[in-house]
Design a protein that fits this description.
The structure is a homodimer.
Chain A: H1 14-23, E1 33-35, E2 42-45, E3 50-59, H2 71-87, E4 92-102, H3 108-124, E5 128-136, E6 142-151, E7 167-171, H4 176-193, H5 205-212, H6 218-227, E8 233-236, H7 241-252, E9 255-259, H8 267-275, H9 280-286, E10 293-297, H10 302-305, E11 311-318, E12 324-327, E13 333-335
Parallel strand pairs in A: 4-5, 9-12
Antiparallel strand pairs in A: 1-2, 2-3, 3-6, 4-6, 7-10, 7-11, 8-10, 9-11, 12-13
Chain lengths: ~350, ~350
Amino acid sequence: MLENGTHTDLSSLGEFGLIDLLTSNIKLHHESTLKGAGDDAAVIQNSNNCSVVTTDLLLEGVHFDLSFFPLKHLGYKSIIVNLSDVYAMNATPKQVTVSLGISSKFSLEAVEELYAGMLLACEKYNVDLVGGDTSASKQGLIISVTAIGEAQKEDIVYRNGAKEFDLLCVTGDLGGAYMGFQLLEREKRVFLANPQEQPDIEGYDYILERQLKPEARKDIIEMLKMLGIKPTSMIDISDGLASEIFHIAKQSNVGVNLFEDKIPIDPMTYNTAREMELDPTLTALSGGEDYELLFSIKQADFDKIKNNPDITVIGHITDVKEGVHMISKSGNVHPLKAQGWKAF
Amino acid sequence: MLENGTHTDLSSLGEFGLIDLLTSNIKLHHESTLKGAGDDAAVIQNSNNCSVVTTDLLLEGVHFDLSFFPLKHLGYKSIIVNLSDVYAMNATPKQVTVSLGISSKFSLEAVEELYAGMLLACEKYNVDLVGGDTSASKQGLIISVTAIGEAQKEDIVYRNGAKEFDLLCVTGDLGGAYMGFQLLEREKRVFLANPQEQPDIEGYDYILERQLKPEARKDIIEMLKMLGIKPTSMIDISDGLASEIFHIAKQSNVGVNLFEDKIPIDPMTYNTAREMELDPTLTALSGGEDYELLFSIKQADFDKIKNNPDITVIGHITDVKEGVHMISKSGNVHPLKAQGWKAF
């Protein structure tokens, strides 16, 4: 009924393959559309400044599990993931719109919890919720958020400006959100097996917070401005460090050397990974949802950030011919693998 | 698991009640946010002009039925419904973002069909598709579109400017999209009862097109500008004439007299309604999805539109104390009922 003729499985393409294919037919008509699909956000030129626009769709059972995700946190996070994309353009978010698809299993109080979390994030990040759409859904909760930000044209940082010899930097630490997720999944399995069992999540606050109440790096954008640094490229870490490095490498047409021993991993992330027999480096490379910023800077800017506890230099940009590699703790050089996200 | 304490059924509020309640807690922070929730689109002031932003979520099984909705048409319509909201602000759409949730039952070719319809609408309405998000969905197709438009601040028309004695106008004709939907539903029932039966949709092209391939009234916006008319209030007809009249009455704090015999209904809509034992007036009042424009103008502007075949004067604005009434064909005065949309 859906179509005739050829049938290509979406799984054979993967998410990025599908997006590349779909967007290859797009023609842009307006001079004011400075950037369309393919970065953290689109960029639209107004008279003196630019609007950046980004949107994200969060689906129950795919992006979140309501059996352990409190609705207020979910509302908060759904705003944060969009603001993070705006900051990753070196822009300031100003407005969001929110569309909800809500099934009849939700009460008004549940929807209000969700909305309260959204408004809390808006309050904290000084953003206006300016509209949206609310629909009944047949199956599960659907959250679609669009964020709109502002920047001077010359301040906007794309994914495509990294140059050979630039330093590759990351903010905060990585892998925590993924380990928080693993912990919640483990406790859910325990609970389902034996509902009398109390959840064993005491003392894991940091990684739980990384998963359930992430923040966007507004502070970093403000600090870079204060330090007079404009990154040469930037992206936020939603899918995992490896995948984001590949985005920068591909769009900037460069290679990257990443040093495993420089990747910032919090001790709790590290220990929990070990406890669950997972490789801590892999949680950082492929875990995702950290909403930290990955960016490249000119070497000349190194002195301005070298003592900053929030920024770690994890590698450098190379010629495109050298490819994308990770130098392991033991000194071996491996081609980096983007595990990416294969959900289809 | 979802929440503790009180449980209020969403069905007790209805869509508009829920939206009113949720948006009542919103505080706006930015002077540049000229209009937040509560109109066809939000309005954001840039230096010399304004951006208007609107978003819509379309869900399989709620807003569309893929058993009779061709994917290319669905893609087209999903863009149109958003552009219509931008025109209803008297603004020009410039960009759209598209988020898709796609289940594994869809092939690449199916998604390409959907996208082709979207790009066709973008092409026709001179709009740039500037990004979005693609996710796997567990159940059914989810389409979230955000449209961004541009206007001079002084040109924007809100829902709240109608004044006593203004004339109430509508474009095109109403009820066709709803009758197209009824026809498709009838043929689906026939098909399910007897798959050998051929669908009986010959000769119904106009109402089928109204349902499957609606257009947004770009032409009207351009014409009003040319005629030097700025409506005092405006809204697009997505939920049905009655419901949109109530939006204008409420936000403008006015009453309305609507004349049943003036409501423009195409003969095919009329005859099909009769054939199916439905009241043609009711299809116009409550059918929805026509994406025509409902607007009020000053009486002084009447001469400029009186001979226009695309615009019909269907009533006038009264004092708020007089309420919202329909004067029937037989001359009786009835309070108008907004059937609205109760999907929860």
